[in-house]
Amino acid sequence: MFECMILGDSIAVGVSQHRPECVTYAKIGINSHKWVDSNITKDLSSGTVIISLGSNDNEHIHTFKELLALREVIDAKRVFWILPANKQNISDNIETIAKNYKDTILKIPEVSKDKVHPTTKAYKLLSEQTK
């Protein structure tokens, strides 16, 4: 079992730059379906798991189903979900899953000009909140 694991999209990649001790399975631009399809068979056991998925999902992705399937195979003491800054319906789905598992929900405190990604300061803060 790993001490820390980061799963997800470009936001997860950004968080991983501030948490180099964590094993990272993340890819820029990936949606929830492609991430789950590529990684669901990995051992996702860890002391802490940080997840950022959903920002790249569209109306053809069944985000709730994908993220629930992911959460069902995670074995961790603590799980943190970083909510997408730009998709309220997906954030609502994530909050439902997180509350069911008593996971921690993190909102991006400050977004960059693209209205999706955290600022440098926000990446640092998100990283610190997961320690």
Describe the structure in your own words.
This protein has 131 residues and is an alpha/beta fold. The chain has a single domain (2-129), classed as 3-Layer(aba) Sandwich (Rossmann fold), CATH 3.40.50. 38% of the residues lie in helices and 23% in strands. It has five helices and five strands, in the order βαβαβαβαβα. Strands 2-1-3-4-5 form a five-stranded parallel sheet, with helices on both faces. Strand 4, helix 4 and strand 5 (104-106) form a beta-alpha-beta unit. Helix 1 (10-16) packs across helix 5 (120-129) and helix 3 (63-73) packs parallel to helix 4.
State the share of residues found in helices, binned by percent.
25-40%
Strand order across the largest sheet: 2-1-3-4-5
CATH superfamily: SGNH hydrolase
The DSSP helix count reads: 5
Offer a quick outline of the entry:
The chain has 131 residues and is an alpha/beta fold. 38% of the residues lie in helices and 23% in strands. The longest helix has 14 residues, at 88-101.
How is the topology of this model organized?
Blueprint: E1 2-8, H1 10-16, E2 23-26, H2 32-39, E3 45-52, H3 63-73, E4 75-82, H4 88-101, E5 104-106, H5 120-129
Parallel strand pairs: 1-2, 1-3, 3-4, 4-5
Helix pairs in contact: 1-5, 3-4
